[in-house]
Design goal:
The complex is a heterotrimer of chains A (about 290), B (about 300) and C (about 375). With about 290 residues, chain A is mostly helical. Chain A is about 70% helix and about 0% strand. Chain A is globular and about 75 Å long. Chain B is flat. Chain B has 17 helices and no strands. In chain B, helix 3 packs across helix 16. Chain B is mostly helical. In chain C, strands 6-7-8-3-9-10 form a six-stranded mixed sheet, with helices on both faces. Classes of the chains: A mainly alpha (about 290), B mainly alpha (about 300), C alpha+beta (about 375). Chains A and B meet through helix 1, helix 3, helix 4, helix 5 and helix 6 of A and helix 1, helix 4, helix 5, helix 6 and helix 11 of B.
């Protein structure tokens, strides 16, 4: 889509674009390029020379079981938190879409968690899910030692997944609800006249029309699970116990800023970058498809 | 539509009420825990009715984590990022939509690609840039030989240094560029009728007047939506402020929460921790409640 | 007050030509209507005069100054847009006063001028409203006011009435003409509506496919259409156009062999021509068992005062205006009388008017004849 009416002063146009160009060059492209460069060199922290090592850093990372551990943990985290957030978000949206009494209240409240900072909600969940206080501690009174995210890796993973999903249920809910409300009323009414009950209509008409939203949210949720998880992990578990919740971004941060291994952190960044690019491309594939739906 | 579905209605109400409980439970727990003394907050099961130590705990958390100062930092940081994003993306979209110049498409795509470079994946080198924001330009001058040329002509050896660590600028500037915001504005600008531009031209308005008098006021809804989202986004940033503000004078409220985590084996002062959590989450919760409409609208329009 | 001279002006987008080498002289104070079907380039022409569109070739001069490279605001033109293009976030007063504000006119004077224009247009009570709170007709007035307030040398109207309902359109048409008479600024009005063109214009410019077909007063256009296109475009119902072949100096023969008498022709027998006659210029009477000219009636559109009778004649669709009473009862056939002076003749190949008709006679419109018994 192009405009017919434009201004002839093209230099003003460029001047308007320059701030953003400088910003993305300085803070996006240069660092990204730097990451590529560092990933192929052995970098001394804080300057002081570097040696070209080609793909050695990658080789080293990809043979490091600790790195693969973080990859597996990230995917487990992404899978379950996405399933939880999307599943619950969808169910709630479907029911709110029925617009019974009180649905306005739900519509308002469900989005609240999304406004909360990951570290703040992480601290809240750390308390609620603590083994010796909070809400879940009573299970340890009944079966001592059953629940302890501080010692048990699986418990810790469950805790961070629950905290992350709690935040993103509302986000998924908003998109599902907006998609559901976007389905023309005449469509469901026609189906009702055809004799389809609520569940049938849901299955045959509404859910199929939500497919594009599902794909969109799938990609967003997975990408966010790589990014927004940092604060939750840092506050709740610090990657522990025994690296059970050491997700990819957390490892990059830890290796880069605690271990001062810039080259290794850069190589990990590049791999994560490739992952995110692949996801984004995938997303645009589906968005292209959506256009054809119409 | 007339439909008699008593069972389905009962199920609907039950499920929605459960969802409601799950959504608000953490808020309630945080508030209740923040109102008890050390003994009661550590009871199992935790008391679900509020106690009488609320203000005491709030004051303690406030002073212990220096939250007054930190909240102000957060406000400056989030406000600065939101204002910067809203403004920069508006003028960029204006340039892309309302002007024709060579490289326009290239700029559009360059901004687009940044969607795939989230802060988390370029965190280490971005930190290096923040340490000396002129570093990239110095390197370019060095590599192209311009540094030598300038030294030869003027006798001055350029050494561009401008560190952004531990400054508001360093917190804000690297987060201001936004592809999402630029697309949002672009999308909106494309819906502005051509005739409006032409009418303004006939009225004698040039490009800057048109932007200030017509386009910006017309974008109010977009400004509100984008500003809300970006303010929340920035307020909730954790990794970047954690790195850039090693010095507590510039730390934000969100990064400061870490100070309140009870140490393992230490005194489990969850009441203070929860009071701090409450203080940190209240401003954003307030923004979401007040700006609900814009917030949801903004979220949904970023999809396109 | 300004005269406009357009010399060999052309506009093309890449290889697509929208306006071709167009010449037009507009006198100071004149009301010019540019009439043509959509896509004929009429709006482009207007926008080139306004300075909203660059010209690909030629010159446009306003008051003797070539304005090709001048920006819209430097040309002294004001424009009323088809969709009004009011600024949605500004009040009526601010909308009208915006041009003055941009020009740096002091607030007191601005308000005074807004007040004056608002009074002229009956907008005084609406000055604080937003465009969204106005009806279509009111918006139209605001758009007019916005143009008037600058006291421009030239008014440009881009189909300003087409978004109004039929009744308002007639009313606004009259008001626009009244305003013009009072302000007597040069006006250029673009439309596809022939009634607007006929009622408003001092002179009409008929355009088709990027070219000027004819420039003339409304009556010239009506009585002496310069081409087959103009003949078919101006007139409701459109003029009947029939293919024919020249037989003698005063007679042509239609495709089905029907002979038609014409004014003296200077064409070689056998030349293909197109003859035209307006529905209301045909004499009609009840059908008689006479081998004369007969319209085989298909259907009748009753208009009350008269009726449009559609049918077949000479191998073509044909329409005539008949007195309402005659058309009543759905007759199967009507007797037709075609007077040579009422005929228009066009070159079959070029579509241009053949100047063989006695044009003086054509200007004197034949009276509607009583139906023959």
């Amino acid at each position: 889509m192009e405009k017919r009416a434009t201004f002839g002063h093209w230099w003003i146009g460029i001047a308007f674009a320059i701030p953003q160009i400088i910003l993305i060059f300085t803070f996006f492209y240069w660092p990204a390029g730097q990451a590529v460069y560092w990933s192929m060199t052995l970098q001394q922290p804080w300057g002081g020379g570097n040696i070209w090592v080609g793909l050695d850093n990658f080789r080293q990372i990809l043979t490091d079981p600790l790195y693969w551990n973080s990859v597996v943990r990230s995917f487990v985290f992404a899978l379950f938190s996405t399933l939880l957030a999307m599943g619950i978000g969808l169910v709630l949206a479907v029911f709110v879409d029925r617009e019974l009494a009180g649905s306005k209240v739900y519509r308002v409240v469900m989005i609240w968690p999304y406004g909360i900072a990951a570290p703040a909600l992480a601290l809240a969940f750390r308390f609620m899910l603590a083994p010796e206080a909070g809400l879940l501690a009573f299970v340890n009174r009944l079966w001592p030692g059953l629940w302890d995210p501080g010692l048990d890796g699986t418990d810790a993973m469950i805790a961070v997944i629950v905290a992350f999903s709690w935040k993103y249920v509302g986000y998924n809910f908003v998109f599902f609800l907006s998609a559901l409300q976007g389905i023309p009323k005449s469509l469901t009414e026609a189906a009702a006249l055809d004799g389809a009950g609520w569940i049938r209509r849901l299955r045959d008409i509404q859910l199929p029309m939500l497919t594009p939203t599902v794909f969109f949210l799938l990609v967003i949720d997975i990408t966010e699970s790589f990014q927004d998880s940092f604060g939750i992990v840092d506050i709740m578990t610090s990657g522990g116990p025994a690296r059970a919740t050491e997700l990819m971004v957390y490892k990059i941060y830890f290796d880069g800023f605690r271990g001062l291994d810039y080259s290794g952190a850069a190589a990990q960044s590049i791999i994560l970058m490739i992952l995110i690019v692949a996801l984004t491309v995938l997303q645009f594939r589906f968005i292209e498809r959506r256009v054809h739906y119409k | 539509m007339i439909e008699r579905t008593p069972i389905l209605n009962a199920v609907t109400h039950t499920v929605l009420f459960l969802g409601f409980l799950v959504a608000v439970l953490p808020f309630v727990v945080v508030a209740v825990a923040a109102s008890h003394d050390l003994f009661h907050v550590n009871l199992v099961p935790m008391p679900l009715l509020p106690g009488g130590h609320f203000w005491e705990n709030m004051t303690e958390a406030w002073t212990r984590a220096d939250l007054g100062h930190k909240l102000l930092n957060s406000l400056i940081f989030a406000g600065g990022v939101a204002a910067g994003k809203v403004f920069v993306s508006a003028i960029t979209a204006y340039a892309i939509v309302f002007f024709r110049f060579p490289g326009r498409q290239a700029i559009f795509w360059a901004i687009f690609v940044t969607l795939m470079l989230p802060l988390e994946v370029r965190i280490v080198p971005t930190y290096a840039v923040a340490a000396n924001v002129l570093g990239p330009y110095q390197t370019i001058l060095d590599v192209t030989g311009l540094t030598d040329l300038i030294a030869w002509i003027s006798g001055i050896r350029l050494d561009l240094q401008f560190g952004l660590l531990n400054s508001y600028t360093g917190l804000i500037l690297p987060l201001v560029a936004t592809a999402t915001g630029t697309f949002l504005y672009r999308q909106f600008f494309l819906t502005i009728p051509d005739e409006l531009v032409e009418a303004a031209k006939m009225d004698g308005a040039g490009p800057i007047r048109f932007f200030v008098d017509i386009l910006w006021p017309l974008s109010r809804n977009n400004v509100a939506a984008l500003a809300t989202i970006m303010f929340l986004w920035a307020w909730n940033q954790y990794l970047w402020p954690l790195l850039v503000t090693t010095d507590p004078t510039h730390a934000t409220a969100v990064t400061e929460l870490k100070q309140l985590i009870p140490n393992v084996g230490g005194v489990p002062e969850w009441n203070i921790a929860m009071a701090g959590t409450l203080i940190v989450m209240l401003p954003t919760l307030l923004v979401v409640v007040v700006m609900q409409r814009w917030f949801v609208r903004g979220l949904i329009s970023t999809e396109k | 007050m300004a005269d406009i001279s357009i010399r060999k002006v052309a506009k093309s987008y890449g290889k697509t030509s929208v306006v071709e080498a167009l010449d037009l002289d507009i006198h100071s104070g004149e009301f010019i209507v540019v009439l043509g079907p959509s896509g004929c380039g009429k709006s482009t022409l207007l926008r080139m005069i306004a300075g909203l569109e660059e010209i690909s070739a030629g010159d446009i001069a306003i008051d003797g100054t070539i304005v090709n490279r001048l920006e819209p605001r430097e040309r002294g033109c004001a424009m009323v847009f088809q969709n009004y293009a009011l600024y949605p976030h500004m009040s009526v007063a601010d909308n009208m006063g915006y041009a003055l504000k941009v020009a740096g006119v002091a607030k007191a004077e601005r308000l005074a001028r807004i007040g004056r224009v608002a009074e002229t247009l009956g907008l005084t009570a609406l000055l604080d409203r937003r465009p969204a709170q106005l009806s279509g007709g009111q918006r139209q007035r605001v758009a007019m006011g916005r143009a008037m307030i600058r006291e421009p040398k030239v008014f440009l109207f881009d189909e300003p009435l087409s978004n109004l309902d039929a009744k308002l359109r007639v009313q606004m048409r009259i008001e626009i003409r009244k305003l013009h008479n009072r302000l007597s600024a040069t006006s250029i009005f673009v439309t596809h509506d022939q009634v607007e063109a006929m009622t408003l214009a001092d002179r009409i410019v008929v355009m088709n496919a990027g070219k000027v077909e004819q420039i003339g007063t409304p009556l010239e256009i009506w009585h002496r259409p310069a081409s087959r296109f103009v003949a078919g475009f101006v007139g409701m119902p459109p003029m009947n156009l029939l293919e024919a072949t020249v037989e003698t100096d005063t007679r042509v023969r239609l495709a089905d062999g029907t002979p038609i008498d014409t004014p003296p022709l200077a064409l070689r027998p056998g030349t293909p021509v197109v003859i035209g006659i307006r529905a209301e210029d045909v004499r009609v009477g009840a059908a008689v068992n006479d081998p004369g000219l007969v319209l085989a009636v298909d259907f009748v559109e009753q208009l009350g005062a008269a009726a449009l009778v559609h049918g077949r004649f000479g191998g073509h669709d044909f329409v005539v205006t008949a007195p309402a009473a005659l058309a009543e009862g759905a007759p199967e056939g009507l007797a037709l009388g075609i007077d040579p002076p009422a005929l228009h003749l066009f070159d079959a190949a070029t579509g241009r008017r053949l100047a063989t008709v006695n044009d003086a006679a054509a200007l004197a419109r034949p009276a509607v004849l009583a139906p023959t018994a």
